[in-house]
Amino acid sequence: MHEMSLVISILDIAEAQAREANAQAINRVNIEVGALAGVENEALQFCFAAARRDTMAAAGELVIEVIAGRGTCRHCGQDGPASELMALCVACDEGTLEIFQGRELRVSSLNVD
Ligand SMILES: [Zn+2]
Asked: Is 78 in contact with 91 (CB distance < 8 Å)?
């Protein structure tokens, strides 16, 4: 499952940041996941629950903020919503969108003790 390797890197990043802050434990890991990132949020939660054991986040929770997809039309240049990677422009209905938002997956903040 590719979500498992994502969760392991999320935990790596979170632990590195927590150590830098001299924290004892991670209570919450806030992440931003683009709607077009190709990631199942339920699978992320499932993997997090399994992978957090033996980490500083052993009792921590994962909070996912979904970032909507957006792109710029290659035809008319308008920015618009993208519900999929090959979304069509809603303004002109002719161009495909150059996606600039919605593919990210990053740790946005931590709550630590
Ligand atoms: Zn357009």
From this structure: yes
Distance (angstroms) between ligand 1 centre and the Cα of 97 equals 8
Range(s) of the domain holding residue 88: 2-112
d(CA 57, CA 27): 6
Q: What is the tally of structural domains in the chain?
A: 1
- Interval 78-97 mean pLDDT: 96
Q: Spell out which residues have Cβ within 5 A of ligand 1, the ion.
A: 73, 75-76, 78, 89, 91-92, 95
Asked if the model's pLDDT at residue 1 lies above 90, the reply is: no
CA of 35 relative to ligand 1 center, distance in Å: 21
Specify which residues 109 forms β-bridges with: 30
Question: Residue 95 maps to which CATH number?
Answer: 3.30.2320.80
Centre of ligand 1 to C-alpha 64, Å, is 31
What's the gap in Å between 90 CA and the centre of ligand 1?
A: 7
